[in-house]
Amino acid sequence: MYKVKRDCFNERKKNLFGIGISYLKHFARGKTTHGIHSPFVYNLLKDCIYIKTPLKEFENIEKQRKRLKIDSRVIEINDFGSCKNSDNGFVNRRQRIKDIARGSLKSPGEAALLCRLISYFKCDNILELGTCFGITTAYLAQARPGATIYALEGCPQTAEIAKNVFNTLNLKNIRLHIGEVDRLLIPVLKAMEHAPGLVFMDANHTKNATLRYFNILTKFINENSIVVIDDIHWSEGMEHAWTEICKHPDVTVTIDLFHMGLVFFRKGLSRENFLIRF
User: Fold this and answer.
1) Counting Cβ atoms within 10 Å, is residue 277 exposed (0-12), middle (13-18) or buried (19+)?
2) How far apart are CA 105 and CA 136, in angstroms?
3) How many C-beta atoms surround the C-beta of residue 24 within 10 A?
4) In the chain, what is the greatest distance between 2 CA atoms, to the nearest angstrom?
5) 258 neighbors 113 (Cβ within 8 angstroms)
6) Are 127 and 189 in contact (CB under 8 A)?
7) What would the pLDDT profile of 188-234 be if each residue is shown by its tens digit?
8) What does the alpha-carbon distance between residue 4 and residue 82 come to, in Å, rounded to a whole number?
9) 156-168 vs 59-68: helix axis angle to the nearest 10?
């Protein structure tokens, strides 16, 4: 546990100025559909990434988000190193639900993109590392009701709130596993009937943990799998992890959307890394 906290301290979140500078650089270098010569990436942008999903489709989920963002209850946090709610690398032991919800949940637009990716590639097994209150998980579950969502969450207290969200929304296709990702990841992957079609990594936001999880995943995925990594520019450590992942020998195409990165393993595609405005 001490090592996890030390890693988080060393890879503390960039300040708003640093994130702003990184975003401006990304925007200046990033492309849209213009200038994209890969048919695979061009079609993905045109038919999936740049499609605007009417958020009315997720109205019930967004009601749960709003409820969480005004919930003043204080809960005990048992965090295994995501460090997303603290500038100094440590998560407070006790936090208000609304503070966690305001700082940790994916935006509706980003969650809707994950839904579009699941629908576009017809993913039937989805793995999520880092469930928090289950709002993004609910989006994943609604994207393809026949799919199974395997959700891993380290904190029992936030997992209980996620369970309540799932029950309120009557979502039956989510299998929630509570415990450290390092302990659960391999057993859950072995228990899955088929390789995960999409993996959303939003757990421990440190370089070492991100690379460790990714290297484990490469032993269980296939060429049609997609790995989505959250907050790839959140810290210098995460940026270094993203750079190493882009160079992984099994990876063919990566797409940097700034707030998240998409990783593809499809054979027959030219090896290339894309910076895309989103």
Assistant:
1) middle
2) 7
3) 10
4) 52
5) no
6) yes
7) 999 998 999 999 999 999 999 999 999 999 999 999 999 999 999 99
8) 9
9) 140
Residue 230 and residue 202: Cα distance in Å, rounded?
Answer: 5
Does pTM surpass 0.85?
Answer: yes
* pLDDT value for 198: 98
Q: Is residue 71 within 8 Å of residue 97, measured between CB atoms? A: yes
Contacts of 71 (CB under 8 A, 6+ apart): 96, 97, 98, 101
Q: Of 53-57, 118-122, 165-169, 239-243, where does mean pLDDT reach its minimum?
A: 53-57
Q: Residue 135: name the closest of 175, 177, 104 by CA.
A: 104
The conformation of residue 271, written as its DSSP 8-state character, comes to P
Give pLDDT tens digits for 77-93: 876 554 444 333 445 47
Give me the domains of the chain, ranges plus CATH numbers.
2-275 (3.40.50.150)
Burial group, residue 269, by CB count within 10 angstroms (0-12, 13-18, 19+): middle
| In the predicted structure, residue 171 carries a pLDDT above the cut 80 | yes
